[in-house]
Specification:
Helix content: 25-40%
Structural class: alpha/beta
Number of domains: 4
Number of strands: 29
Largest sheet: 8 strands, mixed
Shape: rod-shaped
Strand content: 5-15%
Strand order of the largest sheet: 8-7-9-10-11-18-19-20
Number of helices: 21
Radius of gyration: 52 Å
CATH architecture of the largest domain: Up-down Bundle
Length: about 850
């Protein structure tokens, strides 16, 4: 026996939302599921609560049908709650806070009498609530249900800021955290390199929180927004045009913005208002150009009954993040069987049917005589997708899973308490006192696979562990559309791989001709240039400046150009680094070939002169010029010409060691020989004077001593040089752009200057001595020829110094080779051309008689 009360004759409900409105005031219907005996039924609203000529979002009827389908499946399944029947009840909250509070309180009262806290029928009791399509209504319901610790399942959005577990301890979110969705959209914007976007958000607290979360996130990822447009959360039909003119200035920003991507955040009512604004804009000849709409999971492509004639072209190619959904087997067949008379107690199907098919089920409505009469056999699959979809949408899928979550939690309790069951009225088995709060421990640890094959389980904070599908909306002129799944956002994937996208499947707005849209503040800076911030503009707006000399940028829109590695250099466009050419004086290039020919020619010429001298060594002209010094001078000149080959070709460690030392040593021998010749002439003239004591110094000993001592000093300098800081092979990557100069470095600049300076010293001394002795009476006096040769020699090396240090690379080496050849050739020509002339062309002058005649 149990007591009865007059006000307790109906079970407590579980909430479910549906659109129902008058004058565009969006309403929501709240349904409830309960444990009961008998068939589940709808709550039919009293006639006085129904608004004549209702304007509804008839697509939301599917949410209700998803609940009915889930309850039907579970009641027919022998595996879930055998011998237990689940029921449901539906109420309307109209998206108004006061109505949501009243509806939620009515869940806790007796049927037909608003007396909260009376539960007279122990067989028909509230177990859980499914309700809250938007954050505001979810919070309103949770504020009451959490007092009684009744599980509530929000199948729509719920702001994470409101996710206070002290206040909403009984709430379970069927939609993943919004913050994760925002990060996914930012990754999507980065993927397509959209850095200049428009932001559109609902004008309420949730919109404020959205902007507070997203604006810093965009800035951190180098994305800027062109504008922020705030949309009202709801409006009335007679205020539509007034609202449009109020927001006309912002609408013009929307139309004229060069951003092609708009990031939209808004719950169901505000998205209808956005469609209204776009439609009104077309009516006043302000059509919106083709844009890409990137929207959050709140988006459902739906229409109020009066909106079904509005064009959907503006949203063709839109991309939305949608709650993951799947298709339970049998759901479409279930929808195909829906008829106006399919179930008693459905207070919504008549309104839905009339609004969907624009006909009348009740012909006695005088004002609707112009409409056709519904046959009741109309097919739901014939409706355009903007009014009704045959496939289960994301929010319907959440309702479906929420109902199954409640059933599985009850089933777990059923199994754990099997021995505590008792007979009720001697017929059926029922739970003994299962309060709703006991479901929580089973819900938080629950994990099950639904009939569609997806796993459903919650985190500790009551949030569903699930990702988002990325949907591309393809619309058609008849208000139908296709959802194309082009990717997904998986929270269980590794960092950086959570966004998976197949952009080949994406259909863009027709104005883009299927070319990837570009949404940037200005054209990107091409490789070879860098960005320069515009004063007073956001960082996404910038000028492009070419990279400085020697620097490159390989990618578009770089903040700064970079230097190439030393072994590389910028190409002509300064867009990449390319390997430098190795530069040295090669045997194969024209300059090297010319120098080789000159060096070879002068070497052969010197050898030819040496041959002439040797052949005519017994003649007076050869004897008079100290033929041994002549041999030494000619041989050293041959070596001087040949040492030019050490400077041509690719340098190596060995050639670097002997280049300068061989050049310095051979030239010191040549200059020492010239100096010895000059000194010999002077000594010979002085010794011929009567009573001179210099006779003992005339001869080979003095000449050999001069050559040996002067050459030894240079050899000593070279030995010290090689032992302390020898020359080395060096790759000069800085001097010439685009070239690596392969050269021999001196090692010690001081020793190099010492060796070169010593040669200059010998040349100057030889020049001075020769200049003083140039007018001494002698038939074959070489002093005047040596004077001229030293003048040429000194002139060449004085010109060498500035030229050498003003050139780089192989041309520096060429200058040194040319100086060697020119100075050596000067010695050869100036000293030996007169002798060869006499020996070859005037042999009559090369005799002793001529010498005596000249002396007399």
């Amino acid at each position: 026996m149990h007591s009865q009360c007059d006000i307790c004759d109906n079970p407590l409900p579980i909430a479910h939302e549906f659109y129902h409105s008058g004058d565009l005031v969006i309403g929501q219907i709240v349904a409830h599921i309960l444990m009961m005996h008998g068939s589940p039924s709808f709550l039919e609203l009293p006639k006085e609560t129904l608004i004549k000529e209702p304007i509804s979002v008839i697509k939301y009827y599917q949410y209700l049908l998803a609940l009915v389908f889930a309850v039907k499946e579970m009641n027919e399944s022998p595996n879930i709650l055998p011998n237990i029947t689940l029921g449901f009840h539906i109420l309307n909250g109209y998206y108004l806070p006061r109505m949501m509070y009243k509806v939620t309180l009515s869940l806790l009262t007796a049927h037909q009498s608003f007396v909260p806290n009376f539960m007279c029928d122990p067989q028909k009791k509230l177990i859980a609530a499914i309700g809250g399509l938007v954050s505001e209504t979810t919070a309103n319901m949770a504020a009451i249900l959490s007092i009684y610790n009744i599980p509530q399942f929000s199948y729509g959005s719920f702001s994470p800021v409101q996710d206070d577990k002290m206040l909403f301890s009984s709430l379970y979110q069927m939609v993943p955290n919004e913050d994760y969705q925002f990060r996914g959209i930012v990754h999507l914007l980065q993927y397509f390199r959209w850095t200049w976007i428009g932001l559109i958000s609902v004008d309420n607290d949730n919109g404020d929180r959205f902007l507070q979360s997203v604006v810093p996130l965009l800035s951190q990822n180098k994305i800027c927004y062109s504008f922020v447009l705030r949309m009202p959360k709801r409006t009335y039909e007679d205020e539509a045009f007034l609202m449009f003119y109020k927001f006309q200035a912002q609408y013009l920003v929307l139309v004229k913005s060069k951003a092609t991507v708009y990031f939209v955040y808004g719950e169901a009512p505000s998205l209808h208002i956005l469609r209204m604004l776009l439609s009104l804009g077309e009516l006043v000849s302000l059509p919106l150009p083709g844009k890409i709409w990137v929207v959050t999971s709140h988006w459902e492509f739906e229409s109020l009954s009066i909106e079904k004639i509005w064009d959907t072209e503006a949203f063709h190619g839109a991309i939305s993040f949608a709650v993951h959904s799947n298709q339970p087997p049998g759901f479409q067949k279930f929808l195909q069987n829906i008829r106006p008379s399919w179930a008693t107690g459905d207070g919504f199907i008549q309104e839905f049917w009339e609004q969907a098919f624009s006909c009348l089920l009740m012909p006695y409505k005088k004002k609707e005589e112009s409409k056709t009469i519904c046959t009741g056999e109309e097919k739901l699959e014939s409706l355009p997708g903007i009014l009704f979809e045959m496939s289960m949408t994301g929010h319907s899928y959440n309702v479906y899973n929420a109902a199954y979550a409640v059933a599985h939690a009850l089933h777990d309790i059923y199994v754990s308490r099997y021995r505590y069951r008792r007979l009720v009225d001697g017929r059926e088995m029922a739970f003994q006192n299962v309060p709703p709060w006991q479901l929580h421990q089973f819900l938080r640890s629950m994990s099950f696979n639904n009939s569609a094959g997806d796993t459903v389980h919650f985190k500790e904070n009551g949030e569903l562990v699930e990702g988002f599908d990325i949907i591309n909306w393809v619309t058609f002129p008849n208000s139908s559309f296709v959802r194309v799944k082009v990717g997904q956002l998986d929270p269980r994937a590794p960092e950086g791989k959570d966004l998976m996208l197949n952009d080949d499947l994406i259909v863009w707005h027709r104005s883009f001709n299927q070319v990837l849209p570009i949404s940037v503040c200005n054209d990107p800076c091409h490789p070879g240039s860098s960005r320069k911030k515009k004063e007073g503009e956001k960082f996404c707006c910038y000028d492009c400046v070419p990279c400085p000399q020697g620097m490159i940028s390989e990618q578009e829109d770089v903040d700064a150009c970079v230097k190439c590695p030393e072994e590389l250099y910028p190409n002509h466009y300064q867009s990449q680094c390319i390997p430098k050419d190795v530069s040295y004086l090669s045997y194969k290039e024209m300059l090297g070939i010319v120098l080789i020919i000159l060096a070879t020619s002068f070497s052969l010429l010197t050898a030819f002169v040496l041959g002439i001298i040797i052949k005519n060594r017994a003649t007076p002209i050869v004897k008079a010029s100290n033929r041994h010094l002549t041999y030494v001078l000619l041989i050293s000149l041959i070596l001087c010409f040949l040492c030019s080959f050490l400077f041509i070709g690719q340098p190596a460690k060995v050639t670097c060691l002997i280049q300068q030392t061989a050049f310095g040593t051979t030239f010191s021998v040549a200059l020492s020989s010239v100096l010895a010749k000059t000194i010999t002439v002077v000594l010979a003239f002085v010794a011929t004077k009567p009573g001179s004591g210099m006779r003992n110094w005339v001869g080979k000993r003095v000449a050999n001593l001069v050559v040996f001592c002067c050459s030894f000093i240079q050899a000593a300098i070279c030995i010290i040089w090689l032992s302390t800081s020898p020359p080395f092979l060096y790759m000069d990557m800085q001097s010439l752009n685009g070239e690596i100069i392969l050269e021999c470095r001196a090692g010690s600049a001081a020793m190099f200057y010492c060796a070169l300076g010593y040669l200059g010293f010998l040349a100057v001394v030889s020049f001075i001595v020769a200049f003083l002795a140039r007018k001494l009476p002698d038939s074959f006096n070489e002093a005047k020829f040596i004077t001229f040769s030293m003048l040429v020699f000194c002139s060449v090396w004085l010109c060498f110094i500035p030229t050498y240090f003003s050139t780089k690379g192989k041309y520096m080496v060429a200058v040194e080779i040319f100086s060697i050849l020119a100075s050596s050739a000067g010695l050869l020509v100036c000293i030996f051309s007169p002798k060869c002339y006499i020996i070859i062309l005037r042999p009559e002058l090369n005799n002793k008689l001529q010498l005596i005649k000249r002396k007399n």
